[in-house]
Each structure stands twice: as C-alpha cells, then as structure tokens.
C-alpha cells in the first residue's frame, strides 16, 4: 500500500547538495523534491547497536536533516562483532557518545543529537515527541512496548525489527496511518513474553552481517515513508532467513487492542530463593554439595562452567518430564544461567513438578566469573 509523503519539502538544494545527493536526484521515486523532504525530516533511532548502527549511518548519508540517537548503554568489546558504528577505541564510552561522533562526521547537513536515557512508559512520549518517524532497534520487550505506545499516542510511524540468531522480522507499525489500516506492535504480539523466555543475542548469538542487512532495510523503510516512494511494510511482516537466503511476508491486520487499552504487562518470573556465587562456591566444598543444574545453551558452556554442574538446556527442561531427566529431589538444586532469568523459568517448571529444594544462582555465570573465577571470558 502506497502512502503520501510523510514530510514536507525543505528549502531548495544548494549546488553542493545537488552534487552530494546526485544519485538520489536521479531516482524518479526520490528526485529533488524527495531529497528536500529528507533534509527536512526529523528521525529518532532507538538503540545505537546492531540494528541502529547501519540505520543511523545510511540515514545520515541519505541527508536526513535531524537524527536523534537514543541509548543508555556503553560500548562493550562483544558489541564490535556487529555494531559497526563503534570501533575498538570506543569500548567503555557511551554508545550515544560514540555514535554521535561517528554520524556527525558523515554528513554536515545532518543535525545529530544524543539522548542517554532508558526509554520507559513514563518518558517515551516526551523523548520521542517532535519527530516525524521512529526506528526501534532496541533488544528488549520492555523498551519495544514503551516505544510502540508512545508512537501510538503521538500518531507517528514506527519502523521495527527484531533479530534472533540467523533470522529476523521487519515491519512498519503506524496505528494512525491514512485510510484506517494502521497496525501496531500489539497486533503482532498482544502481550510481552516472560522475561528470559526469549533469549537475547548475548545468550543465543547473532549473525553480524544479518543485523547489518536488516538495519539497512530499516533505513530504506524510513526513506520510503519520508519521501512517499514505493510501498512500506505497513500491514506486512517480512521474515528473513539468512541461512537459506529466503524472505517471505506475513500479513498483519489491525485489531481493537489500541482502543482505550492499557499497555500490556508481561508475565512475571517465578519466585525462587537465591544463592550468591560466594555461598555456592563454599557449599560445593562442603560435605553435602548441592546439585548444580546449568540451563544455558550448549555453546555457552564453552565460555566456562561451574565444576561438577550438569547441563540441561531450558528448552529441554520445560518440554520434558523432569523425573525422566534424573534431577534429584533429595538434594538442594541450584539453577544456573548467564544472568538469572532463564534459571527462574527453569525453577518455575520444576516447581510445577513438585520440586521444592530449589535456588537460583544470583547473577548467574556472570557473577561466578566476576567473584569466583575471573579467568572465565565474558560473553
């Protein structure tokens, strides 16, 4: 479905701008007027990570007049495999600082602004106000739903994507779209999943080149919306499988979930006692050590294990019969994942089977590496 151009044309192009954007001016779908619309556009990008990196660089190169970069994280060495807006010298800096510096050097026509803030339901509307379009490259459902709700309230389109390992979803949400055919995140996912039930890239891995591809496509969606070119992905979710190099569309229809509805709440994690890394290390040296169950993925154990732990991935635990998996009922069991959420989900599955002597390693393997075995690599 084609849509009218989102942004009015800005001032006439200077001779220097005609040269710089010549390849856009040659496109019948963009042309001089479309380029003036890009120069007048105000775009907010949530997340300066894997998806935000290519999106920001291509939007700046395209001549978007104002870019706001929103992130509250710092650059980590593990980011460099895919977050190409940052380099090795940026490790330890805030992602906003690093990204603003990089984007600012790409195009003097682009007014780059940074906001080091964590978006939530209380501040998202104020942060995203006065933008024509928002791109969401965040990696958690809390932020995604806060951004979606804010865009719904502000009536602006939201270009959205999510990547898992070697596959991705990409679409455009716009509940106020002309013609009454608007859809939003809640039409695709009515309720957020329980924390930890959808592994983040830090738990499951991600193909760096894929986020580059998808982030670039997000920039393309924004350019189409701003200029009125082509048919944006409104009402269509694009599924991308990088391993088979295939794409397919999933139709998405509007519902009544935005008619006076409150923001959906995610399911709570099961409750369970916790044990510190120091206490667990001491207990393992005692006469009656606990049974330590590692519920991470197999590849994660290459980064280190707790000596004597038994491996059982969360998916196997939740789908199988715990009695057949030979988890003892007569010993305390400590559940371990990378940082904690998956261990709580495992505890809930075992509690449903009548297990009682359960605890979760507080902080997971991250805490174990920091407090007990600093030789283990971070991931």
TrEMBL record:
InterPro entries: Rhodanese-like_dom, Rhodanese-like_dom_sf, ThiF/MoeB/HesA, ThiF_NAD_FAD-bd, Ubiquitin-activating_enz. GO terms for cellular component: cytosol. Residues 286-377 form the Rhodanese domain. PROSITE patterns: RHODANESE_3. The keyword Nucleotidyltransferase applies. It holds the Pfam family Rhodanese. It comes from the Bacteria. One of its GO terms (molecular function) is nucleotidyltransferase activity. PANTHER family: ADENYLYLTRANSFERASE AND SULFURTRANSFERASE MOCS3, UBIQUITIN-ACTIVATING ENZYME E1. This is Adenylyltransferase/sulfurtransferase.
């Amino acid at each position: 479905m084609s849509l009218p151009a989102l942004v009015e044309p800005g001032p006439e192009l200077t001779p220097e701008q005609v040269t710089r954007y010549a390849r856009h001016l040659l496109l019948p779908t963009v042309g001089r007027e479309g380029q003036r619309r890009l120069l007048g556009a105000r775009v907010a990008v949530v997340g300066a990570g894997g998806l935000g990196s290519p999106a920001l660089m291509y939007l700046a190169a395209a001549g978007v007049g104002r870019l706001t970069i929103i992130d509250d994280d710092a650059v980590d060495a593990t980011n460099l495999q895919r977050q190409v807006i940052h380099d090795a010298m940026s490790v330890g800096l805030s992602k906003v600082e690093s990204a603003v510096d990089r984007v600012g050097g790409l195009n003097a026509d682009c007014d780059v602004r940074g906001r080091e803030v964590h978006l939530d339901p209380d501040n998202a509307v104020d942060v995203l106000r006065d933008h024509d379009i928002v791109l969401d490259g965040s990696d958690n459902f809390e932020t995604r739903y806060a951004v979606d709700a804010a865009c719904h309230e502000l009536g602006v389109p939201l270009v959205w994507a999510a990547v898992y390992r070697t596959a991705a979803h990409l679409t455009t949400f716009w509940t106020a779209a002309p013609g009454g055919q608007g859809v939003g995140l809640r039409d695709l996912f009515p309720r957020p999943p329980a924390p930890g039930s959808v592994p983040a890239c830090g738990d499951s891995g991600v193909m760096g080149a894929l986020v580059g591809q998808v982030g670039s496509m997000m920039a393309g969606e924004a350019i189409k919306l701003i200029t009125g070119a082509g048919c944006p992905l409104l009402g269509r979710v694009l599924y991308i499988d990088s391993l088979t190099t295939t794409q397919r569309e999933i139709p998405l229809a509007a519902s009544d979930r935005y008619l006076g509805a409150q923001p959906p709440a995610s399911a709570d994690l099961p409750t369970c006692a916790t044990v510190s890394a120091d206490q667990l290390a001491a207990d393992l040296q005692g006469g009656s050590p606990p049974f330590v169950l590692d519920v991470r993925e197999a590849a994660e154990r290459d980064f280190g294990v707790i000596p004597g732990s038994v491996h059982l991935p969360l998916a196997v635990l939740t789908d199988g019969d715990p009695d057949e998996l030979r988890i003892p009922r007569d010993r305390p069991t400590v559940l371990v994942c990378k940082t904690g959420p998956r261990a709580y989900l495992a505890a809930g599955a075992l509690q449903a089977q009548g297990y009682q002597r359960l605890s979760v390693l507080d902080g997971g393997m991250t805490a174990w590496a920091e407090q007990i075995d600093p030789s283990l690599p971070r991931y």
